[in-house]
Amino acid sequence: HPNAAVSLTWTPETGLWLGATPEILVTQNHGHAQTMALAGTMPCGDTRPWSKKNQHEQGLVANMIREVLQRHAKTLDEKGPYTVVAGPVKHLRTDFHFTLREGSTLGDVVETLHPTPAVCGLPMPHAATFIEATEERDRELYAGFLGPVQIQASTALFVNLRCLTLYPEQSLARLHSGGGLLAASQLESEWSETNIKMQTLRRLFD
């Protein structure tokens, strides 16, 4: 998966996780930083134009990221939205390249960026409260972030999507995926999209 950040992680608290995520939370290399809005999804074989729902979904995430960066960035360049392929699906993506203003740190950006609307919703914190009250299972590492920090002046943090939890003793795996629900969402379409996203990791068990 050349366009994904592939990871294998283990902790005593969360167990063994395998992932292949297409989403950058934030990277920084010698002072130059990048993040992205990755929202809006279609199957790769779908040749229709992007729907208003998908464009709106992308816009919500991009607007939030832009507002965060305007508080912390000295310089800010934006590219997109454009289409990118991630396994069996394609997404709308907007890139943000920036440098930090004096007094702001990469940690400040991470703290205010995560969780983005793509994995939590809007408005915050009401969406987070709703998720905590409604979702029946703890997300654990799903939709969190991971990656190397300050390795040879480089940091690369990724949102932990398209991942699974492995239970070797039981020969079991739990796959994690999700979708963006808006007022214009069609539930059957969202359910189908969520299943298609999981094909990347499900193929490991074919």
From TrEMBL:
InterPro entries recorded: ADC_synthase (IPR005801), Chorismate_C (IPR015890)
Residue span(s) of domain Chorismate-utilising enzyme C-terminal: 14-197
Pfam families to which the protein is assigned, alphabetical: Chorismate_bind
Any coiled-coil regions, as ranges: none
Protein name per its UniProtKB record: Isochorismate synthase EntC
Source organism of this protein record: gut metagenome
